[in-house]
Amino acid sequence: MSFYQVYRPKYFSEVIGQEHVIAVLRGQAQIRKFHHAYLFFGASGTGKTTTARILASALNCANLDGTGEPCGKCPSCRLIRESHHWDTTEIDGARFRGIDDVRELVFKAHLYPIGSSRKVYIIDEAHSLTPDAFNVLLKLLEEPPPFCVMALCTTHFEKIPDTISSRCILLPFHPLKSREIR
């Protein structure tokens, strides 16, 4: 395991400096009602992808507690943390950016989850998708399967088309203050 994976937050309570985002996600987890698409945006290193992983754990945790915190111990939580979960897919938008890539994602998104209640797709650097790829993704965001959740992460919110961002819950990540980093 690399250095950053060892110290990466595994629970909502460990995410520092993004209390406004965590409050929204915990609130949804407490009542077990989630939106079908989230757009996490902000500067590099603020916890967007990490928070998306924790959200994936909360979505599929077998023992989600009353505070909305995933247990971290059930098979789903462990497999998501190790990046081996069968129904959670993390995609690098910088490499997976073309129309054919997104068509394949849309096709797979409509297949039922294998062993979880939800399929989760995390697209990191989502701003790198081509305009045609965004058009294909739009169809999935307009008519999502009931078991599919998308988490788009980007450092360049202005490059995300309005048609995409308007169908997501927008969660801005703020730069950390020096005292929070310490």
Would you kindly provide a written description of the structure presented here, covering whatever features stand out?
- With 182 residues, the chain is α/β, with parallel strands linked by helices.
- Helix content is 38%, strand content 16%.
- The protein is built from eight helices and five strands; from the N terminus they run H-H-E-H-H-E-H-E-H-E-H-E-H.
- The chain has helices spanning 3-7, 19-31, 48-60, 75-81, 99-109, 131-142, 162-165, 178-181, and strands spanning 37-42, 88-92, 119-124, 148-154, 169-173.
- A five-stranded parallel beta sheet has the order 2-3-4-1-5, covered by helices on one side.
- The longest helix is centred in the first third of the chain and has 13 residues, at 19-31.
- The two termini are 23 Å apart.
- The mean pLDDT is 93.
**Overall outline:** globular
Summarize model confidence as the mean pLDDT.
93
| Unreliable spans | none
**How many beta-strand elements?**
5
Q: Percent helix among the residues?
A: 25-40%
Query: Order of strands side by side in the largest beta sheet?
Result: 2-3-4-1-5
Strand-pairing-aware structural class: alpha/beta
Number of helices: 8
Proportion of residues in extended strands: 15-25%
Order of H and E elements: HHEHHEHEHEHEH
Report the C-alpha radius of gyration, rounded.
15 Å
Largest sheet at a glance?
5 strands, parallel
Give the termini separation.
23 Å
